[in-house]
Design brief:
It is a single chain. The protein contains no helices and twelve strands. With about 150 residues, it is mainly β. The chain has one domain: Immunoglobulin-like (Sandwich).
């Protein structure tokens, strides 16, 4: 937030500088309020298409969690071949307390994404995001795909 040096004055004396006061966020109460998080697509996201997710880190007094380290995580809700891409998976919140990532997946699946604040040790889960896969990624259950050499 910043630093401030208050001035004080006793009667009949000159102004004096007090000790500097550092204004910072209350790290124990930092969280990602639902109203300050992005919405997720309600439908299925096509393979390879990116979706932007963001969240604002704020404490109970309304101070922004500026320059705080955050991790973005994912959990598959369905059986998948590969995990989705989160870029960047780790970063710092900006001067407005916002962390922003882009997610995508080349394979079909339903995923839960979450953001974790290292400073407040709190995380926030986003609603499930469903990605549609490429037709070449679909494999019948219990069968292994084999590649035959062409002559």
């Amino acid at each position: 937030m910043g630093s401030e040096t208050p001035l004080f004055r006793l009667d009949l004396f000159e102004f004096e500088h007090a000790s500097s006061i550092d204004l910072i966020a209350d790290y124990s109460s930092l969280s990602f309020p639902p109203a300050l998080r992005s919405r997720v697509p309600s439908g299925t996201v096509p393979a390879g298409q990116e979706v932007e997710l963001y969240a604002t880190l704020i404490d109970q007094f309304g101070n922004l969690g500026k320059n705080s380290l955050v991790d973005w995580l994912t959990e598959p809700n369905t059986s998948i071949v590969a995990e989705p891409v989160i870029r960047p998976a780790q970063g710092l919140t900006d001067q407005h307390g916002v962390t922003r990532v882009f997610i995508s997946s080349a394979t079909a699946g339903k995923f839960t994404f979450s953001v974790l604040s290292h400073a407040g040790e709190k995380n926030a889960d986003f609603p499930d995001v469903t990605f549609a896969g490429n037709p070449t990624d679909v494999r019948p259950a219990g069968r292994t795909l084999s590649v035959q050499e062409q002559r």
